Amino acid sequence: MFAEERRQRILTMLESQGRVRIAELVSLMNVSEPTLRKDLTLLEQQKRLRRTHGGAIAVRPLFEPTIDDRFARHGAAKDLISRACLDEISPGDSIYLDGGTTVQRIAEQLEQQPVNVLTNAIGVATALADKPGIRHTLVGGTLRSLGGTIVGPVALDTLSRFTVNVAFISASGFTEDGISVADVADAQVKQATIERARRVVVPIDSSKFGINDFVTVCDLGPIDAVITEHADTQIQALCAAHGITLRVVS
To answer: Does the keyword Transcription regulation apply (predicted)?
Structure first.
């Protein structure tokens, strides 16, 4: 890979993820750390990124992509992760599926087995509508069209009446600080659900690791399991330190 190709790939990753780590770049591009540090320094001089300890962040604010854009990203990884999530569901379970694109894939792959699904996602409800063996309840409230989710005070009040065995909670960022998302109202719904769940599973592709999005949903304490397609030693150590079951599928 030529130097200019390498630098353009760095910028492309920053555009989609908001931040990159040198260790991640070394693994992806098979070049040395000093070479990548020179790349990041040059791009910073061109005001195309900002250097941080161990990596770089985008110089522009990271805006929330539309749900269609999110569906198009990392599709193969999301398919692997969502299929693995089916193993977390037992017949007769009550489960919560939120508005993440990986989580919606779980709904699409659910067989007609006796489960009770609670959701605040229009896409999930639509995917389950023609599966008569699966009962589903769509939370009421205010439609947030960008994410295709139901949010607001009515949604929060409704969630307080339910308890679920397993909640599948999506996130756009995962760090030592916890999981995070781009929207405050979505974060509030996720927080309310976590409080009503006996078990919390986070299905997340590896592009979200190392990212702090706009608002924190929760720290790592309430999370019982993380399912992903790749996890480096830092993520493995984080999960182990917080008693989180880490499942890597490939």
So the answer is: yes
